[in-house]
Amino acid sequence: MSDKTVEILEQNKSVSITEDGSTVIIDSAALSVVSVGTQGPAGPNKLGGKNVTNDTVSDGDLLRYSSTSDVWEFTQEIDAGTY
Fold first, then answer.
1. Are 73 and 64 in contact (CB under 8 A)?
2. pLDDT digits (tens, 9 = 90+) for 38-76
3. How many whole angstroms separate alpha carbon 35 and alpha carbon 37?
4. What is the sign, positive or negative, of the torsion defined by CA atoms of 15, 17, 21, 24?
5. Which phi and psi angles does 28 have, rounded to 5°?
6. CB–CB of 47/72 below 8 Å?
7. What is the Rg, in whole angstroms, of the alpha carbon atoms belonging to the chain?
8. β partners of residue 16
9. pLDDT by residue (tens digit) across 4-35?
């Protein structure tokens, strides 16, 4: 059975790969970052044909539609209204 581990050390900017007792270390002198392109669906930030605000999302946020501003917005409170 093969024993493989990968260790990435941010403080040292190095990658260490160990497989079957052999270790390969790549340091920042030989390491480069490559962009792989768009992550996620490309296109406008719309949901149901309506824009989604560019506000910063916080932990616990919900997404609600505002008929006043005609956009989807992030919030932590929802007014359930009257039934």
1. yes
2. 666 666 788 888 888 888 888 989 998 888 999 999 999
3. 6
4. negative
5. -65, -20
6. yes
7. 23
8. 7, 25
9. 666 655 666 666 777 777 777 777 665 566 66
